[in-house]
What does this fold into?
Amino acid sequence: MTNVNKEVNMRFIQLAKGLWEVLAYLDHRGRCQVLDHLASLGANFQGARDKMVRLLCSQIPLQGPPMQNARICKCLGGSIYELRGQHRGQKLRVVFFYDDNRKVICTNAFSKAETTPQNELRVARELREQYLRVKFRKELQILTRREHDV
It folds into this structure.
């Protein structure tokens, strides 16, 4: 059995790129929890999902994260934020952080009741810390959607 360093080759999939690059974390199996969650939502989340996809793939790449718009973006503390895709009571959230190189890094997504679950915050914080360590060592791997699907 080989010893694998989980922090080497931290991988992300590029969701969109403009003035800002939008990335989503890929786990050790190559799965993207954000994309998987969006794909798993039923028809009653169609409006919220469409709004979130527009944010991630159109608005943020051109304008950056909407930090001044509390209806769309909320700071959760510790440099962690959530994007809010809400449509007719359906609350869809994507948790992210950003770095100074105009990158928005999406860590996880969930459907929300009233408060942000602590485990979702923990995941985002841990991934941010890992990202910063791996970025410092220049061991980030960013895949395009085409590369990821191969």
User: Anything to note?
Assistant: The two ends are 27 Å apart (CA to CA).
